[in-house]
Write a structure and sequence with these properties.
This protein has about 450 residues and is mainly alpha-helical. The chain is about 85% helix and about 0% strand. It has 17 helices and no strands. The chain has helices spanning about 1-20, 20-50, 55-90, 95-130, 135-150, 155-165, 170-195, 205-230, 245-275, 280-315, 320-345, 350-355, 360-375, 380-395, 395-420, 425-430, 430-455. It is globular, with a radius of gyration of 22 Å. The relative contact order is 0.12.
Length: about 450
Amino acid sequence: MSEPHTKEAAAGGNKMGTMPIPKLLISMSLPMMISMLVQALYNIVDSMFVAQLNEDALTAVSLAFPIQTLMIAIASGTGVGINALLSRNLGEKNYEAADSAAKNGLFLGIASCIIFAVIGGLGSHFFFAAQTDNQTIVTYGTQYLTIITVCSAGIFLQITLERLMQSTGKTIYNMITQGTGAIINIILDPILIFGLFGLPKLEVAGAALATIIGQVIAVLMSFYFNLTRNKEINISLRGFHPHMRTIAVIYEVGIPSIIMQAIGSVMTFGMNKILLIFSSTAAAVFGVYFKLQSFIFMPVFGLNNGMIPIIAFNYGARNKDRIIQTIKLSVAIAVSIMMFGLAIFQTLPGFLLKNLFDASENMLKIGVPALRIISLSFLFAGYCIIVGSVFQALGNAVYSLIVSAARQLFVILPVAYAFARIFGLHMVWWSIPIAEIASVVMSTVLLRHIYKTKIKQLGT
């Protein structure tokens, strides 16, 4: 059995080390970029239909976003740890350890959803009541967040099972499961929200249920594909007992990723608190921005996923030229994507708000200048995202964590709060472009250090 694995590894190594970088980067990234775009549909569809109810419903879903982001951060970060350990064990042909990594990963996914079910069931009302005294928003938000958290098995198990497929290179099945879940969500949203075909009108709760049903079907499909197509690992939990050392290794890699992603949840919660000083509409605008920008940022994140293994492989092979070529091409593609997004946000903010989210005149008054100001950060964001992933690929993930924490916690929130108090709402949005400029400076300084200490010497 070892010979096919050896041949497969050799073929993969040959491709990573010899295929022309443009062709290699596109072939590695394009499936990921498509998957990320599909994932962005989950972020926006609920809000599009909920906005047709009223602005309070849209605000409620926007205020729930930090908790959803936190769940995704924990699931994805744990998935990074599972992926790393499982891939390493398979590379070493230690199939028993690989099975242990997969089974313990599933155990962690189940444990996480139980924890969030308890926290969400008991704390959803408090979470919204702590942010606003608008009882309509509190009621809508409590309904939405309770369903999303109590039924969080969908998101945790979906991400975990997809990481198992990704570890063995079967990402095509992830595209199928994600796409199916997103389509089901889109179909069910209007049916459950507005009570079509004789079903009860569930409003915001219907949006949550549509999301959960889409996720659960994706989970069932992922289970099927893992059982029937992913022959490299065994995920049967019969006779399973948690293995603390395996769990510790998963979290050694996963916790930095969880923290980095969770920082975004903290920043969003803090910004919502600042914006609610002015109005719930301002918070709704910020939520809408996050939904819209995901369609620009997600392809760049998909590009990252394709870029990281190329840089990591060629760093191991001491091929400086291919590393530099990959970085330059990735930055060029990322910046091009972000410039396309900038053009859309600058020219069509009113169209996006009105046609996708049924924005009121007040929301347009706040939202149009907000989207134009915030999107100026796109000028720098593509470069910063790629550089952060270069740090991860070269084993310096802590640099990414430093830049992310500084940008979101030590620039955006303090600047936004100061501008809110001194100048008013119209200046709060400038905190994001300012933070991105700071991120460019920090990322460039750290990249120069990485180049001098790790990349430059590879050619000697």
